[in-house]
Structures are given as C-alpha cells and as structure tokens.
Amino acid sequence: MADNTEIYKYFEPTVQQNNLALSNIHTLTSWGIGTAAGILGLTGWNGFIFFMINWAVISTLVLIVKCKGDLSTYFKSGIMDVAGTPVLNTMLSYVLVWTLMHALVYIYD
Questions:
Q1: Nearest in space to 83 (alpha carbons), one of 54, 42, 48
Q2: What's the rounded Cα separation, in Å, for the pair 85 and 90?
C-alpha cells in the first residue's frame, strides 16, 4: 500500500502551472533556435544537430536555474518532464520556424 506522504506529495494545480511554464519556455526557445538555424542557413542533419545541442543546453539551464537542481520538487516525472516528453512537439515548432526563416533569407532573395 502506498504511503500517504507519496499520495499527497504534489499539489495538482501547481504541477500544471509548472508544466505550462515549461511548455512556454520550450516553445519560445524553439522559435528562437529555429530562427537562428534558418538565418545561419543550416540544412539537413546540421539543423537537427543544432536543435539537439540547444535542447540539451536549454534543458540543463531549466534544471539549474529554474528548478535549482531538484526536479522532483517541481515535476512528477523529473527529467522526463523537462527533457524527454516535450521534445517532439517542440521539434515541430522548430522545423516550422527553421524552414520559414531559411526560405525568407535564402530563397526569396
């Protein structure tokens, strides 16, 4: 049987607010990273490698700055909530902005 402290460890509205703030951070940074990749003219795998490197940096900064090194205090799943789960949704936004900026800078000269 589960311990009562584990059942009531997280207050759901606070966890939802943390997830919303994290989603906003990931979305806005993916737009910025996509803009940078498009302006730099990255194509193919170079653009995806650029995204993954920046994703690791942003996730590390969220861990150190926002969570003060303790993910279990702010998120139920820990590292999966910060770095694992939202990567595909954020990558879609990244690719959209990346291709848009690349097209605006290099194709429509």
A1: 54
A2: 10
Q: Is residue 100 part of a domain?
A: yes
Q: Is residue 5 part of a domain?
A: no
**CA-closest candidate to residue 30, choices 103, 98, 83:** 98
Q: pLDDT tens across 46-56, in order?
A: 999 999 999 98
Return mean pLDDT, the chain: 84
Q: In Å, how far are 47, 95, 104 from 100, measured between CA atoms?
A: 13, 8, 6
Gyration radius of the chain over CA positions: 17
Report if residue 3 sits inside a domain: no
- Amino acid identity, position 34: G
* pTM attached to this predicted model: 0.80
Closest CA to 42 of 98, 96, 87: 98
